[in-house]
Design a protein that fits this description.
- With about 250 residues, this protein is mainly alpha-helical.
- It has one domain.
- The chain has eight helices and two strands; from the N terminus they run ααααββαααα.
- The protein has a two-stranded antiparallel ribbon with strand order 1-2.
Length: about 250
């Protein structure tokens, strides 16, 4: 999977290294949306991998920072498999071929995200309220009300290593999938007359509001995610060869 640096020309979207290209056209449809979703998944997985690498160099005394980076790594990994605006990655397609242990490790991180990190329904977080009794002979019976808390720590070297493994596994699958899906779109476009391609609309990254209240704008932009690709991705990817040079 190749990445390129954006380098707009004359207010038009462009990618560095293609100075002689007359334009970058937009590709619509479910297949194109799927490729876009895979790109977002790859970005999330890369972020998770970067977080894990930073855990190796953050001072162990920086506990708050370490836990924040750990939470970010788990959350970005898990959201690739959650239903939302994009096509979620499939647990069984990615980890099934790796064996039962890989599936169990994946399920453990999803439970960790769902029950402890995103929601507080985990038994490893406990809290009780108590009262400290005054010593006999004092004019009052209660010294103070206290709240005792016990929070389990998932930031353990064993779990860090396991998250490394599942992130790497998912990343490899996404890369193969992206290459296969991109080649499918590539072949379809190569069959279209050049004049028709040139007449298609240019790719335009709309400057929408990026605030947390901008859900309606995103919904309008990404309605086609409800559709399905025109072919079975798993069938093409299961025994996919490395993408041909073009």
């Amino acid at each position: 999977m190749e990445t390129g640096k954006r380098q707009d020309r004359n207010d038009a979207f462009a990618v560095e290294g293609y100075a002689d290209s007359p334009k970058t056209i937009v590709i619509d449809g479910d297949d194109a949306e799927y490729v876009a979703d895979l790109g977002l998944h790859r970005a999330d997985l890369q972020f998770a991998a970067d977080c894990l690498r930073h855990l190796d160099i953050i001072d162990v005394r920086q506990q708050v920072l370490r836990e924040a980076v750990w939470y970010a790594a788990v959350s970005h990994f898990c959201r690739c498999f959650m239903h939302g605006k994009r096509h979620p990655l499939d647990r069984d397609s990615i980890f099934g071929p790796e064996g039962e242990t890989a599936l169990e490790v994946f399920d453990m991180f999803v439970q960790l995200r769902n029950k402890q990190m995103a929601h507080d329904v985990s038994g490893i977080t406990q809290t009780r309220t108590g009262a400290i009794l005054a010593a006999p002979g004092k004019p009052y019976k209660i010294e103070r009300i206290v709240n005792a808390q016990s929070v389990g720590n998932s930031l353990d070297p064993r779990y860090i290593k396991q998250l490394h493994l599942v992130v790497d596994c998912a990343t490899r699958w996404v890369q193969r999938s992206f290459d296969a899906a991109s080649n499918h779109l590539w072949d379809a476009l190569e069959a279209v007359p050049y004049a028709e391609l040139l007449s298609r609309p240019a790719l335009d990254m709309q400057q929408v509001d990026r605030g947390i209240r901008a859900t309606n704008a995103y919904k309008k932009q990404r309605q086609s995610r409800r559709g399905s690709p025109s072919f079975a991705w798993e069938d093409r990817i299961q025994n996919a060869e490395p993408p041909a040079e073009k």
